[in-house]
Structure formats: C-alpha cells, structure tokens
Amino acid sequence: MSNWICNKCNIEMEDVSDIGLVFKDIDLPPAVGYRCPSCHIEFLERDFVVNELNQAEEMLEGK
Q1: 1-21 pLDDT, tens per residue?
Q2: Residues 1/31, Cβ–Cβ less than 8 Å
Q3: Is there a domain that residue 5 lies in?
Q4: Which domain covers residue 28, as residue numbers?
Q5: Which of 16, 31, 59, 60 is least surrounded by Cβ atoms within 10 Å, i.e. has the fewest?
C-alpha cells in the first residue's frame, strides 16, 4: 500500500497506474499515482510529474 491517507475520507489511498491525463485536448498515456477508493480523488506521483510529465509538456509546447 501507499501509506497515503485521504484527508476527506480518512482511509488509505490505493496505488494506481491508470490516471487519465489530457493536455490541450491531447489524451496522454495513463499516469501512476494514488486514488481514494471512496471519493476517487487522484494524486500523481512526484517523480512522474518531475521526470516525465514536465518533459512531455515541454515537447508538446515546442520549448
């Protein structure tokens, strides 16, 4: 388990690898992160955002 706790529901969040992402009407591959099994709020893993998502965003914006 992830040891992340949903602040709203006070239950442990699940590790997931199917978080949907969209950037300027472009569907991106699913992301890894955490999801509350009760309220379904999702959070992305920091390493994924820093290492992969930032690079993809720069490439899509042509920077």
Answers
A1: 458 999 999 999 999 999 998
A2: no
A3: no
A4: 14-61
A5: 59
Instruction: Tell me which DSSP letter residue 60 carries.
Output: H
Our count of domains for the chain comes to 1
Is 39 in a helix, a strand, or coil? coil
- Per-residue pLDDT at 63: 54
Residue type, 10: N
Distance CA 26, CA 28 (A): 6
Does residue 49 form part of some domain? yes
DSSP secondary structure code for residue 5 in this structure: B
pLDDT recorded at residue 1? 42
Task: Pull the structure tokens for residue 44.
Answer: 């992305």
- Is there a contact between 60 and 26 (Cβ–Cβ < 8 Å)? yes
pLDDT tens digits along 27-41: 888 988 999 999 999
